[in-house]
Amino acid sequence: MDEKWVYHFEDGNTRMRDLLGGKGCDLAEMSNLGLPVPPGFTITTRACRRYLSAGGVFPEQMWAQIVAAMAALGKKTRRGFGNPAQPLLVSVRSGAKFSMPGMMDTVLNLGLNDETVAVMARATTPRHAWDAYRRLVQMFGNVVLKLDNALFENILSETIAGEGAACDADISAAGWERTTAQFKTLLRKETGQEFPQDPWQQLELAVRAVFDSWNAKRAVDYRRATGIPENLGTAVNIVTMVFGNIGWDSGSGVAFTRNPSTGEKSLFGEYLLNAQGEDVVSGARTPQKIETLKDSLPRAWEELVAVAGTLERHYREMQDIEFTIESGKLWMLQTRNGKRTAAAAVKIAVDMVREQLIEKETAVKRVMPAHIDQMLHPHFDEAACQAATPIARGLNASPGAAIGTVVFDADSAKEQAAESAAVILVRPETTPDDVHGMIAAKGILTQHGGATSHAAVVARQLGKPCVTGCESIRIDMQHRCFTANGRRIREGEIISINGTTGEVYDCEMPTVAPHFEDQADLQTLLAWADTVRRLEVWANADTPEQAALARRYGAQGIGLCRTEHMFLGDRTAQFQAAILAKDETEFQTILNDVLLPLQREDFIGIFNEMDGLPVIVRLFDPPLHEFLPAREVLVRELGAMEARGDTGTTYSRKQKILEIVNDMHECNPMLGLRGCRLGLMRPALNRMQVRAIFEAACACTRNGITVHPEVMIPLTSHRNELIHIQPLLKEIAESVMAAQGVRFRYKFGTMIELPRAALTADELAQEAAFFSFGTNDLTQMTYGISRDDAERKFLLHFVEKGILPENPFQTLDAQGVGVLVEMAVVKGRQTRPDLEVGVCGEHGGDPKSIHIFHRLGLDYVSCSPYRVPVARLAAAHAVLDEATPL
Ligand code: PEP
Ligand code: MG
């Protein structure tokens, strides 16, 4: 049997998207719902593919099927294509499976010629008929014959000027007749061809042009940018023309069935009376708000509201529609799922459940993790962003909006913030030395570094907007300024950074600040997500404030408290004093007298906030020398002091520090004396920490707080490391509880951050009651890549060039690191079936990675407090996607 290349609207439906394209299948669906769709048919995407692969030859039988379909259209409309007495006019519209707005071609009013224009002038008005004809000649010249549209627009401007008209809506019939003649002359002059008078020839050439437009440069570029496959082809829709421009009881418009900005349930859109569809979007005349249609054409308004309701009930989704009103009669020209903001996405999903249009699970699925991100960070007003031009663009490392005056070093940031100034810290890149400035700043902008660079990771943890890798700015530290796109921004000038988009502005942009607790719909949606998900969501939090925030956002525990962060800021000097102690006794004294009380207070604060929930405290992890000044800085300072002859006590002290720094120097600190290795070499530090944890837990328990401390030993590679260190620490835990007469449930466990730990997880589980995957280090160690160095030097380039599919520090590398995680989970549970298993690396807040952790059967993911709501949703999506695979 011959292939069916052509489908009447009655023969299609919305499930035939691949074959009929988006526009075609939904025109068919609407038509079958009994909605007012002008009669028409669709030529399939397969026909387009066949035509293109045959080098521009129509598939056999296709033309015959089109001719038959046109005859059927003629019957339905009681007109005839090419019939001079009762001419049938049609539009030829592209429509691929995925919407590619404005990328492909459309020709309207086919069937008009010198003869039928006169018939039409009698049936409607001469002005309307000649306006329609000139549009056809213009579109045909542009789309089919590839003439530059500017040539037509020039003639149009002359016509408007010649008639003294304000716009094209005011041109007379004679004006349009003259313009049509000029357009035809233009065609002849530029192409040597006459405008075809034969409607069938017009149709054939228009169908070819729409097929060919699949390969137009802009369409190819758009597909590349949006990931639409190259091999789909476009369908062609041939639709009986209806006219919105035959008088003041006609018009054209576009509308959303709900407000796409706020989600409010009311029609939202625009229309123009006495106009065709393209006039509404072209801006030639200012369109009217859709609700005024109620007054101008009440019957059409009522019908439109009814159709919108029918469409929503049918599709169970907010629709974006196009319509035309011809002499008071409504016609639907398109419907599709409407694009919307994050706030609208959440409101529409929740409202539709309440309206019993969709199930809760569907609502949860329709909201994307990126939507939640957008809703939780203060953001710039979208309209203002569209109107302004950014001076630079970098990586959107930590979402949100920040405005402040530029400062170039952390100390200035802290000083100025103390005076209540809002500052943006601008650095070539950040290091742990900058953290106090980052805490003080409203936002962070770095020239170098990736989305998981120090600046990015810390900014996300702090919930600060951050743009990294903004390579187009040039920082001049000497003159305290940076240049971007020809602008010089000096210290003290205001900039705005958009961490959600990576854009930087040289002015104060207006912001909108959301509040989690006030977002009732979001709370409802996340509560539904909670009933769906299996993975628990914990948070990484180092302070009581972060713990409180995490809990408000729905965290079910703390998966990582990085205790070394408690020695930053004002406490660094005290910690340095401990490192620089002259002997072990002095070291111990500082630990006990100075640092123990500080840590105990921190833990009391955290346990109080997390009443009833588990708190994993990681013992000190980084190499000690990270807390000392850099060797090069010391050498430089000492040199300067010598040159000045300043060799007093400060000089001697600095020299002493340099000796210790030299002594601690490591070629590869990432692989050096850190994690449990440091604990094994200098157990006093770990002992102090465990004492602080358990004394704090006892104090809280006495105050009626329920504590579940879990002590985590970092960077384990061999079971013997745990065998050596864990009993010493457990002994302290037991002795503190015994001395205080308090008991509570606690655990000791380890991080899995090294491939050897994953490979020998069955042995580690003999000692550890829980595993937490430190996927930051596990990725570094598996790839043999130093994250910060690599992101600065080559990693982002690798991703850009497709050498690596994704940045493995952002999204878990399923085939490599993921296999290690899986192996460790299986082996660990073989030894200890009740082993608690979670992840606390950056991947714990990444939606794609959360899908992998769900599949691997982890108990929880732990992420920065700000990502907890995102993770709650993503964990629910992991379950729902499992139920309905793509
Ligand atoms: C990790 O390695 O994944 C981890 C959480 O530890 P850190 O980032 O502190 O090294
Ligand atoms: Mg680590």
What does this entry look like structurally?
With 886 residues, the chain is an alpha/beta fold. The chain has 36 helices and 31 strands. The strands form 6 sheets. The chain has an 8-stranded mixed β-sheet. Strands 24-25-26-27-28-29-30-31 form an 8-stranded parallel barrel, surrounded by 7 helices. α21 (544-552) links the parallel β24 and β25. The longest helix is centred in the last third of the chain and has 26 residues, at 584-609. It is elongated, with a radius of gyration of 34 Å. The model has no long low-confidence stretch (mean pLDDT 92). Bound molecules: phosphoenolpyruvate and magnesium ion. Residues 753, 774, 776-777 line the site of magnesium ion.
Quick rundown:
Strands 12-22-21-14-15-16-17-13 form an 8-stranded mixed sheet. The chain is of the alpha/beta class and 886 residues long.
On the 0 to 100 scale, the average pLDDT is 92
Shape: elongated
Termini separation: 32 Å
Q: Which class of secondary structure composition applies to the elements?
A: alpha/beta
Bound molecules: phosphoenolpyruvate, magnesium ion
Strand arrangement, major sheet: 12-22-21-14-15-16-17-13
Number of strands: 31
Compute the number of helices.
36
* Low confidence ranges: none
DSSP helix fraction: 40-55%
Strand percentage lies at: 15-25%
Q: Over the alpha carbons, how many angstroms does the gyration radius reach?
A: 34 Å
Major sheet size, sense and barrel closure: 8 strands, mixed
